[in-house]
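Ex. 9. Protein: histidine kinase.
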Amino acid sequence: MWGYIIAGVVILGNLVFFFSRRRKISIPRENMENIMAEKVIASVPDMIFMVDNQFNIQKIYNADPVKLSLPVEALIGRNLKDCVDPPFVDIVISNLREALISDKVYEVEYTVSVHGKITYYEGRFKRVQENLVACFERDITGRKKNEVAIKQNQRLLNAVLDNMPMPLIIKDIDDDLKYVFWNKQCELQGGYSREEIIGKTDIEVYGKERGEHYRDVDFKIIEEGNSYQVQEVYETPDGGRHVSIVNKNVVSNDVHHWLLATRWDITDLIRIQEQLQEVNQQLRMAFSVTNTVPMVWDLEEDLIRFKYPEFKVGNKGFCKERDGQSSLEAVGNMHPDDREVMSQLFADIKAGKIDNLHREIRYDVLGLYEDYYDLYLTVEKKDIIGKPLRVVGTLRNITESKLYEKTLMEAKQNVEKIQEINQLILDHSNNGLVYLHPDYMIEWENLAQYSEHPLAGRYKAGLCCYKSVMHRDAPCPGCVMQKALETGKREMKEVTFDDGFTVEITATPVYDIKNERQIRGVVLKYEDVSERTRVANEWKRAKEAAEMSDRLKSMFLSNMSHEIRTPLNAIVGFSELLVNTDDPKDKEEYMAIINRNNELLLQLISDILDLSKIEAGTLEFIYDMVDINEMLRGLEMSYRQKIAKHPGIDISFTSHVNECVVYTEKNRVMQVISNFLNNALKFTSEGHIHFGYEEQANGLRFFVSDTGKGIPSEKQAEIFKRFVKLDSFTNGTGLGLAICQTIVRKLGGEIGVLSEEGKGSTFWFTLPVRPGNS
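Predicted structure tokens for histidine kinase:
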């Protein structure tokens, strides 16, 4: 039909074109032809778009305003690319290009969206003249929806069949019984994937012998047209054997025929039946061994029957009649103390008030009531209105159990008493204990009672120790428990926490009683050794201090013997030379040497005395108001006299405030500054030595600066230690700066040095005093 319509439109289009060229010749006839062409076009059930070689719309026939995105006038001249939904633009344009250069009809499906509504179209493109294509556009939205619905229904049907809880097979009768469907259960139970089955015959899948057998059965079913059901054993490729019930039926429509087969695997059902038989036999044996009788109470007949009658033989006190007894008779065989309660409970069961009953009774048809029984009843069947019809239950002799229970209760009380005593012992020992399973789970602990440390509270039974205590995802590195598990021996470890808390952890593996090689768990003993560790550390420090003191004393004696002997030798030697010489110059030189060594010896003795006073804690500090400027000017004059013979050195008191009177220890301050000045003189051969002080926010800062040889940076941290000398060839004990440091700290200040090797040094100290502040 499409071909006729397109051909007609093409012919009519050519006629319109032809008559338009003859407009001047025959106007009336042209109008008649145009009217006929328009009537034919109007009868076509499609919108027709005339599109040029630039894909612009030139004319629209049979326009449907509802389906157009714009009015017809607005669409004329509009490019078709802007009218079709973007995903289909390329394929539509491609077909239009082909139509422009060919006489063939091109077909394509696409969508057009108008105000958010999507419409599906089937387009057919045919060239009607050069550079002009007629586009026939038919609305196929309804057909598309039907196709989608059909596909959805087909997918749903396939999903239902594919997910059936039993294997489902479909063979195509019209195609040599080839497999066309093989659901998931077929894959799971049959051992073959769909790829291995679909499109193949039974012979191709199972081989000739087995395949021909299946085909013979199938052909017989097809020939007779009957249903087929049989129990057969199915063997999977992995050698598994499955008992199945197979059903086969022929299904067909008017044109096609299929063979539908289902396979119900009853292997598990048969196994369950066998297991039930075995369980039933085991129950009979269990009832016999435990002296338990199952019972059924028919409420309609009010008759209680005891099952397995072999249990009643020889049990004279159990049942008078094998055929059963009424509930009234049963209550009458109970101990008088139990009858009233049991009579009411039986009545409640009959009335539907309760469905279950569990009670210990004393039951004996002989009236001795020496035996105890455990009675359990439950309503097993009711009518449609909920009225109980049948009750099932058991009656078990528990006389021996009652005796055991009494014995166990007494034993339990004894164990609890022992546990209480053990707990008291554990809680009052100076140790915390934790019992851990090999998987690091805490089974028991008493740490919370033993210690108030925050970590102790994190040990909780039922938690993993490294997760709850240390907040880790894996055991701690070097875990003492892990080591004990590996070695099978007792392991110890000492742990000190950031807060100074130190514990000694002892991990002791606990072996299984029955298997001495299997570790059941680990006992961790936590002992607070913080005090012991502190005492040990103090003892160690004291020992090291004593050893250091001995070494220092030995060093001191060795150093002092050398330092004292040197000036004494000079004094004695030059004294003898002084006696034996008459030369005035020699005498003057010898006297100067003797005086210098006298001063050195006095300084050595003074340092030794100060050190001994410091060690004994008797170094005196006498505080008074001190004029700092006056004190330092005196030092300036004194040291200028000392360097009178050294014209290359200038010593000056350079920095100070106008007035500075403070409350401090004058002699000790002078001692520190003098020591700084003496050291500066030792190591400065030329240049200057400047000293003074300055006022700071926290007090006064004193300094002595020189242009001497300076101090290496690596030795600056050592110079305030005892017996440290930068130059072993320079006279001195190495005690001066150590004594200065002690004095400054005693005065509440700080001491330090700034130095650059080869350029000089600045020694400084601070005093927390303010001018005029007493």
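Check your answer against this statement. The CA atoms of residues 1 and 7 lie 10 Å apart.
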